[in-house]
Amino acid sequence: MKPSNSKVQMAKQMHLNKTLSIDSICESLSISRATFYRYLSL
């Protein structure tokens, strides 16, 4: 997965928002919690 992938960028941006829970971010992007944390590490 490249860091430039749109889902990766969107996950990072949503996480920076601080008003959304991790669960809601994962649900809206249709990704697992593990994938979310993998995206953050990219």
In short:
This protein has 42 residues and is mostly helical. Helices cover 69% and strands 0% of the residues.
Task: Tell me what the structure shows.
It contains three helices and no strands. It is mainly alpha-helical and about 40 residues long. It has one domain. The longest helix has 12 residues. The model has no long low-confidence stretch (mean pLDDT about 90).
DSSP strand tally: 0
Encode the helix/strand succession as letters: HHH
* Shape, per Cα inertia axes: globular
How many H/I helices? Answer: 3
- Structurally, how many domains make up the residues? 1
Which value, in Å, is the CA radius of gyration? 9 Å
Helix content: 55-70%
- By helix and strand content, what is the structural category? mainly alpha
Major sheet attributes: none
What average pLDDT do the residues reach?
Answer: 92
Q: What gap, in angstroms, lies between the N and C termini?
A: 8 Å
Which regions are unreliable across 5 or more consecutive residues at pLDDT < 50?
none
Beta-strand fraction estimate: under 5%
Describe the SSE topology.
Layout: H1 6-17, H2 22-29, H3 33-41
Helix pairs in contact: 1-2
GO molecular function: DNA binding; DNA strand exchange activity
Organism: Vibrio tasmaniensis
Domain Resolvase HTH: 8-40
